[in-house]
C-alpha cells in the first residue's frame, strides 16, 4: 500500500517478532515463511527509509482490528479519507491504556 501511495518513509509495527527480526538479516531465509520474508525485503527497497519494529499484541490491537476489517471489506485503503467510529473508539481505549 505504501508503494502505491508513493510514500518515501515508512514505519511498520507488528506483533510477529520472528518476522521483524528476519527482515533485518541480509541472508537467504530458509524457514517456512521465507517467501513472505523475500517479498518484504523486495518491497522495503522501494522506500527511502524504513523501520520495522516489534510491538506487543496488546498495544497493537487497533492495527489488528483495522486489518481484519479491511480483509472483511476486501479493501486495502478504506481509511485514507476517514476514521471509522469503531476505530476511533478503539484508539481512545488504547490511548487511555498507554497513558497509565
UniProtKB/TrEMBL annotation:
Organism of origin: Gossypium schwendimanii
Residues annotated as domain RNase H type-1: 4-69
UniProt-recorded name of the protein: RNase H type-1 domain-containing protein
GO molecular function, one term: nucleic acid binding
